[in-house]
From TrEMBL:
Belongs to the thiolase-like superfamily. HMG-CoA synthase family. This is Polyketide biosynthesis 3-hydroxy-3-methylglutaryl-ACP synthase PksG. Coiled coil: none annotated. Keywords: Acyltransferase, Transferase. Residues 171-246, 259-320 form the Hydroxymethylglutaryl-coenzyme A synthase C-terminal domain. Residues 2-163 form the Hydroxymethylglutaryl-coenzyme A synthase N-terminal domain. GO terms for molecular function: hydroxymethylglutaryl-CoA synthase activity. (3S)-3-hydroxy-3-methylglutaryl-CoA binds at D28, Y142, K241, N271. It comes from Isoptericola dokdonensis DS-3. It is an enzyme of class 2 (transferase). Its EC number is 2.3.3.-.
Amino acid sequence: MIGISDLSLATGHHVLDLAQLAQANGTDPAKYRVGLGQDEMSVLAPDEDVVTLAASAALPLVQRHGTDRIRTLLVATESGVDQSKSVGVWVHRLLGLPSSVRTVELKQACYAGTAGLQAALGIVARDPRQQVLVVAADVARYDVDTAAEPTQGAGAVAMLVEADPALLAIDPVSGVHTADVDDFWRPNDHASAVVDGRLSVSAYLDALTGAWDDYRAQGGHGIEEFARFCYHQPFTRMATKAHRKLAQHTGAALDEALLEPTTRYNRRLGNSYTASLWAALASLLDDPTDLTGERIGLFSYGSGAVGELVTGVVRDGYRDHLRAEDNLRVLDERKPVDLATYRALHAAAGARGSEDHDVPVATSAPFRFAGVRNLARRYEGVAGA
Ligand code: CAA
């Protein structure tokens, strides 16, 4: 039995209340709160990026479990900061991992964290003594004054994958669906994603039904054997759309109220792309309802497009290994920004590119982006964080 033993959340230093964005662009705030299911979005400080998010999410896992059994670090992201060097190699140094840890970055839009999990399961199956550190981390960024602007956000979730897992044992069967669709992508010379919003929603739902059908064809469990579903949440209302689609597709009566505990973190993080599904899982497990022995369906979607339905069973005693207070504190301790500050941060993000510059200290996270020297990005620990 192999699966997830630990889950830890990190996000940006700032938060924007979406009511401010609604007010500024003359939108009814209920459209964001109810129509999209989003209350807030995380905003990065100038000295934060996907490397600092990933390292900050993973640090508590290394502190709790040590590094002796970790031989692989997989960082999944679509917010990479270099075309060659993986985000994971900086994370590896910041965490003080041994040189005997292989490190790589995975990309397929919001899906790559799930690819990381599948790779980790395979590695542990070959050698059950090993642990794999999988980190899903992203900064969701669209142009301002677009329909997608309220669906930005940022976050990272680190997972420890091992044999005899403490939280969730992943079932061997999963369902997969790949199709070449131009619903959302980010060309190499663009700082923000390009998106066809309507197409992206229908491509997501097509991937869900395709993955479900494949899951069943592979011998997966019947719909009645699932207690809960977690969905990738580009905005949390998308989980409701997905659940309705799955109900319609399978003919099952699925209770939409059971989705609410999966949406609490993402309502506040905003979209965190590849981290979003795992933030939904953390949110569900951190809820006080006891899910011991229950089967959970996890639907991962990455535009472009790849979907996968992964399923797992919650382990006995899982509550003793949760980080509910820490995860909530990460959200509660963000520093609110007003609209003008958010817009200034949005405009400035990455604007200096690879020219030499220093970035002043702003974040209170354990790690920071210090600037660029000789085309190379520099990262360092934050004293006292
Ligand atoms: N009160 C309550 N609800 C309201 C409202 C009000 N005053 N006004 C509107 N609404 C509702 C609408 O009825 C609608 O609900 P339904 O979807 O249930 O019909 C909802 O609010 C959204 O309204 P619109 O459809 O008019 O929203 P929009 O066109 O302005 O933008 C969007 C929606 C296309 C999703 C846009 O936010 C977007 O492009 N987002 C980025 C793309 C995205 O997230 N796609 C998701 C699938 S792709 C994926 O999952 C990968 C990924 O992470 C990007």
